[in-house]
## 1
Amino acid sequence: MSVNKANGELTRTITVGDPGVAQAVFGPLHRHVAHIQEAFRDPNAPRGAPAYRLTLDAQGDRLIARARAGGDADLDRVQRIVEALADLARRKGRVREGEVLAAISFSEGGDQKGPMQLPQLGGLTLRTPRQVHYVEALRDENVDLIFGVGPAGTGKTFLAVAAAVEALKSERVDRIIVTRPAVEAGEKLGYLPGDLAEKVDPYLQPIWDAFRSQMNENDLKTRRERRQIEVAPLAFMRGRTLSNAVVIVDEAQNATILQMKMVLTRLGEGSRMVVTGDPSQIDLVRADQSGLAHAISILENIPGVDVIRFAAQDVVRHRLVAKIVEAYHRDESANG
C-alpha cells in the first residue's frame, strides 16, 4: 500500500493473478467493480465533495483502490470482497451479480480478519445474514418447526427446498413433502380444464422449479415415482401422519387458522416442518382468517420453534423488486 504525501490518500493494488478469474470478478464492462464502489458511497458527503469514500480502477488482472486518509478499513474490506469473489470464480468459473452483492453484504464490519468465505447451500450462494440464519435453522437438528416469513423474492421457499434436498440426499430423512393451499389470486380452479392434478399443477410449478435447481430431471422423476418427493395441495394432508420427512408448507398466508392447525399437527416422528409465507399477499376472502400470523403468535416462544422474518433488504430478485416491495409497504402504511 502506498500513501500520497500531498493529501494523505491511500492506494492499494489488489492482484487477482489469473486474467480469466479477474474478468469474472470485475464483470462485463467492469459492472461488478461499479457495484463494489457503490457500497462505499458517502451519504454525508458535502455538496461538491467526492461522493465515494474510495475509487476503484480495474486494469488487467489488478484492481487499484484509492481511499481517503484513514481509509485502511475500507481498503481491507475491498480486498476481502475481491478475494472472496476470486475464490468463487476459480471454483465455479463465473461470478453472478447476486454473488457480488452477497460479498458486499457479508464484508460489512471492520473487525473481520482473514479470508471471507461466502456461505453456500446446494451450490447456491446465500445473499444476506437473514438467509444465513434461516439456513442455520433449517440445518439445526434441535429446531423442528421453522417459520420463514417476509416479502416475495427473499428465498424462503427456494432455500427450504434446497435444505430439504440436502437432507434427503444425505439420508437424514426418507422423503420431502411440500404442500400449499389451493387458494387462487383472483382465479377459480373449477373453471380450469383437466382433472384435479392438472388443475393444481400450475400452482405448484414454482416448487418444481426449485427442485430442478437442485437435481437433474431423471433423479427428480425417480424420486417422485418412489414417493420420496411429494407435492400436493394442503387439503390432501388431512388425516395423515408425516414421519421421517421434511415437510414444507408454502404460501401459508393463504391457510386458514383451522387449516394451519391441521397441517402443523401432522408432524410425526423424525420429521421437521418449514412454514413459509408472505403476510402482505393474503388471497383469502377475509385476511383476518389467515393462520400464519396466528400460528406464529402462539408458537414462537415454544422450544424447538424458530421464526425468521425477512425484509425488503433480503430480496434477491432484480434489484428493482426490493424498491417495489418498499413502495407498496409505504403505501399500505400510509393508508392504514
## 2
Amino acid sequence: MEWLKTYRDGEVAGKLAELLKNQEGLPPVRFMEVCGTHTVSVCRHGIRELMPPAITLTSGPGCPVCVTATADIDAFILAAELDGSIITTFGDLLRVPGSKSSLQDARAEGADIRTVYSSLDALQIARQNPERQVIFLGVGFETTTPTVAAAILSAEQEGLQNFSVIASHKVMPPALEALLADPAIQIDGLICPGHVSIMIGADAYEPFVNRYKIPCVIAGFEPVDILKAVVMLAEQVKKGKPEVEIAYDRAVTREGNRRAMAVMYKIFEPVEALWRGLTTIAGSGLEIRPEYDSFNARKRFGITVDEANDPAGCACGDVLKSIKIPADCKLFGTACLPEHPIGPCMVSGEGACGAYYKYRQRPVQ
C-alpha cells in the first residue's frame, strides 16, 4: 500500500478509517494510546468517532506532569520557599495542585518561579545570576531527561556552583510492565509513544510481546500515523501473532538513540518511583547518581516531604490506568475545570481530562 507512505493527507486518513470499518473477524478490543500527545491528537481530530464498534481507544500514563506524585509537587513548592532561590520549570507544572497549594500560588506569594523551555534555559539563568541558587524542576520521560543530564554535565564542566535539579524523572517500560501485569486492566494492544521510542528504540517493547503476548505499534502524532497504528494492531490481533511494529519509521529505529541514553545513565540511576495512580514501581524513576550530589537539590538543600494523598474525589489515577475515562469522574467539567483544576490530568497540555474537555469528547455510543 504505497499510499501509506504519506502522513499528512486527509484522503489517506479516510482510506485508513474505511479499512477499520471493514475489519472482519475482529473481536472487541481495547487499544491504549500510551502517550499524552497521542491522546490530544485523538481528541482533537475525532479519531475515536472513526473507530468501528469492536475497537475502543483508551488513554494511558504517558503524560509526565500527570503521573508526577503530589509529594513531588510539595517538594517543588518547598524549593520555591528557599531564601533567594530561582525556580525554573515547564509551564504545565505551575497549576498542578500539591497537598496544600501550587507553584502558581507560591509565585503569587512572591517566589521567583520562571517558566523555561528546557533545562538548558535554566542553566543560562544560573550563569546570569551567579549570586543566586537556580533549581530546575525535573519531570519527564526518556524524551527530555537526556537534556537535563547534559545540563548537569555542562554545569560541572563550567564549575557552576549555583545550579541544581530536583529529579522526578521517570522511564516508561516499568510503568507499562505494571499496567500489563494488573489483571484489573484489560489492554489488547499498545499504541506506543513516539517521542519516547525515538530514544529507547522499538526493541524496548519486545519483552511485553514475549511475556504478555500483546501487540505493540509505535506511532507518530498525525491522524494518519495513529489510524495506521490502529490498523496494524487490528491486523496483529486477527492473525494472532503479536509483535513490535513501527508505524513511525521516519523517526524511530529498533535500537533508539544510544548516545542520548548513555548520557542520561551517566548522570542518573534507576530507582523506585511513585506514579500517580500506579503506586510505587521499582526501577521506574531516575535519581542523580551520588558522584553528582552537588547538583541534587533534594540532598543539597535537605528537601524532604511526607507522602501525600491525591485530591479527594479526583479520578486521575484511574484515568491514567485506563480504568476510567475522564467523563466517569464526578468532578470532571463541574468542580474540575481548566481554569480551576483539581487534578493534574485537567492541567497539563497532554492530560486526558484537559483534552477531553477542550475537544468535548463524550463516550461513543
## 3
Amino acid sequence: MIHPMIETASTFQPSLWLRNGHVMTLVPRYWPRTISLAELPHESRLFTTAQETQLLGVCHWQHDRKAAPTVILVHGLEGSSESVYMRGIAVKAYRIGFNIVRMNQRTCGGTEHLTPSLYNSGLSGDYRAIVKELIERDELHHIWLIGYSMGGNLVLKAAGELGATEPALTGVAAVCPNIDPMVCAHALEEPRNWIYHRHFVTGLKSRLRRKATLFPGKWDLSMLDHVATISEFDDRYTARDGGYQNGADYYDRAGARHVLDAISVPTLIITAQDDPFIPYAMFTTPTIQQHKTIRVIAPPYGGHCGFFHRSRNGEDAYWAENRMVEFLRNRT
C-alpha cells in the first residue's frame, strides 16, 4: 500500500533483474566503481565528543570554508569514512560547493584506541557535539547532516533532539535509517537475511576482540564465542557498554522514532519498500506522514542502501546519492 504522503520516485527505474531486495542490496557493493578524492583537499581531524572519547573526521574544505555550507556524513553499521557510499556522496557534494566532513563512528575506521566505549545507535550526542564545534570553532553557520542506515538513525535523532534550538542546522537526509532498532534487529535475524546478519555479527565480535586488547578487563569475553545473533550481542555488550539496562532498553531508547516529531528543518528520508531489514511500515506512521518538514521517498525497489539503476539524464547509476545532492542544491 502506498501512503499519500510518501513519494514512490518514478525517476528510479531499475532493470528487472535488480527488482529484488537482496540483489539490489548486494550488487552496488561489488559493482566496480572508481571514486577518486585526489582532487579534494584533505584534513584529518579529531572531535572530542565525550570524556575520553574522540571521533576521527576526514574533512574536505572549500577554499573559503566559512562561506560554504557544510555536510557531516555518518556511515552505517560496520562501515567507516572510507565506505564506498561515503566517498561517493562526498565527491558529489563537494563539487556543488559544500564542505565535507566524513565521520567515523566510535571505534570505526581503525579508531578503536580513541575511545573506551563501543558505538551504538543512540549516540546522537556525538553528532550534536560535532555540530557545536564546527559552529563555535570554525564559524560555520549552514550545516547539514547525512546518514546511512544506522548513521541515518543517528542524524535524525540528533536533529530531533536539537529541534529548533540550533539555527545553524540547515537540513538532514537519511538513507534507509533504522529508526526503530528493535524492529530492524528482528528483521535482520530472519533466516532470509542470514548473509547480512552473519556479516554484521562477525564484524561486531571481531571489533570487540580488538577493543578488548586495548582496554583489558573492560568486557567479559568468556561468552562471546556463544553469541549467535545481533540481539544477543547488543544485550550482552552494546547495551551494557552504553549505559542501558539491557538490549530491549537500548533498542527502545536509541530509536529516532521518538523525536521525529521535533525535527524542525527540511528532512529527506529515502528508503525502499523491499529493504530486507529496514521494514517499510516504520515510515508509514502518522508522525512521519503528517510532518511538515519531513519528505519520504520510498520506491518499490532499492534494497538496503542500494538504489542502483541504469544511468540517465547525465547522472551516474547511484540514484539515492543523486537525490541527496539534488536536495542539498535546491535548499542552498
## 4
Amino acid sequence: MLKEKIKSLAQELKEEVISNRRHLHANPELSYQEFETANFVKQKLEEIGIHKIESKATTGWTALIEGKNPTKKVIALRADMDALPIVEANEVSYKSQKEGVMHACGHDAHTASLLGAAKILHQVRDQFEGTIKLLFQPGEEVAPGGASFMIKDGALENPKPAGIIGQHVMPFIPAGKVGFRQGIYMASADELYLTVKGKGGHGAMPETLIDPVLIASHLIVAMQQVISRASSPKVPSVLSFGRVEALGATNVIPNEVKIQGTFRTLNEEWRAAAHKKMLQLAHGLVESMGGELDFEIRKGYPFLQNDPELTARATDAAKEYLGEENVVDLDIWMAAEDFAYYSQEIDGCFYRLGTRNEAKGIVSGVHTPTFDIEEDALEIGAGLMAWLAVSELEKA
C-alpha cells in the first residue's frame, strides 16, 4: 500500500532530514541572499536523481518528479529558504554560524522537509500518475515576497499545477499533530512609514516651537480610530506601531519624528479603504497642529485564502495518514505569508506542522532568538507532504 510505503520511507529518512535541517540551520542566509542554500538544495536534488531542475528568481528552484502518465495532473509543493536578521540565543550543536542571522521561522525545516518528500516521491514515482512540481523559493520574509518573483519567473507554468500545497512549522501545536483551515486564514500585511515634521528647539521654550513629539503622540493614538470606529467589527484588523524615533534630549525638541508600523486585515476592499482613511486622518491631524507629514504605505502580501475543496481533501488525507486525533482545526492568524500570491493564481492549501515539545522546553514562538523545533516532527514534515501530493494526484 502506497501510504505505508511512504510512512516507511519517511521513517528511514528521518535522520537524513534532521541532518539537512541542522546544516541549513547552522548556515542561514538572509532573504534574496540564499546562494549557498540554493546550491545545497540543487546538490541534494541531483543526488536523489532529480534532474529536471530550473533556476527561478535568482536563488530559487523548481524541479519535477514525474510519475506514470506525467501529463495527467500536476500538483506543486512549496518550501521557503530564507532566514532572519536575529542573533540566535540557543546553545545547540547546530547553532547559527553566521552572527546576526538565524533560521527563526522554521524555513530550514521547510526546506529539509521538502527535500525529504522529494526523495520519497522519487522512490515511489512508479506508483502514482501525474507530476509533482517542487518549488524552493527565496525571500519569504521581505516584501514584496519571493513568491511574487517566482511567479513572475514562470514557476507556475510549464507545466502549470492544478494546485499548490505549502507547510509551515507551528510552535503552538504539539509535535505529532498538524493543523488545517479552509477559506480565509492569514492576513494581508502593509508597512507604514511616517515622518512628522515640526520646528525643534529648547524644551523650555515651547511657545517658539512646533513640537513633532507631541504631534506624533496624538497621531499614534488617533490612528487607532481607523480600527475602532471605521472598520466593521466583523473584519479582523490590526494597526500596530513598533518604532518611534525622536532624536532629541531631555530639553531638546527635535525637528522631526519618524514612526514605523504595520496594518493587517483579512478583506481587500477594507484594506484599500483603510489606506485612504489613514492618509486622510494623519494628514489632517498633523496639519491642524501646525506640522507637516510624509506618509508612505508600502503594500505587502495579500491575505491568504485556502481553497476549500483542496484543503478539505488535504485534511482528509492527513487524517488518513496521521489519525483523526492528530489533525486540528486552525483559527485565523494575523501574521502574513507570501504563499498568498500562489493561492491567488491557483488553488492553494497552506497548513501547519506542529513542532512544540514542552518537556524539552521547545516552546518559543517564531521570530525569537530562542526559537527551535522538535526535530521528531520532521518525519511527518517529509512524509505527510509526499502523501498529500500523491493523494491529490489520485483525485484527478
